[in-house]
Amino acid sequence: MEKQNLITKAINLIGLNPLAAACSVTRQAIRRWETAGRVPRSDFTRETHYAPIIEIESKGQITEAELLDWRNISPTLS
Fold first, then answer.
1. CA angle 47, 39, 62 (to 5 degrees)
2. pLDDT tens digits for 26-76?
């Protein structure tokens, strides 16, 4: 079974512009996360905290734990 890209799911639930605004990053940054299939490395090392913001903005439909679970990383193949 193919893994679902959680960043794509977040974009579909929240919207690209509102997600970028909530995380205080550009739309291009969100698209880079989508291509990588994960939040930035800095979230895994707790330098940034985008995962909890995504959980709040998605009203719990995507959790911080899911976003920070390496098993859920699903890069988009071009």
1. 115
2. 999 999 999 999 999 999 999 999 999 999 999 999 999 999 998 888 665
Give whole-number Cα distances, 69 to 10, 16, 26, 28, 41, in Å: 16, 22, 24, 23, 12
76 Rama class: left (phi>0) / alpha (psi -120 to 50) / beta: beta
How many helices (H) does the chain have, and how many strands (E)? 6, 0
Contacts 24+ apart (CB under 8 A), 16-22: 18/57, 19/54, 19/57, 22/53, 22/54, 22/56, 22/57
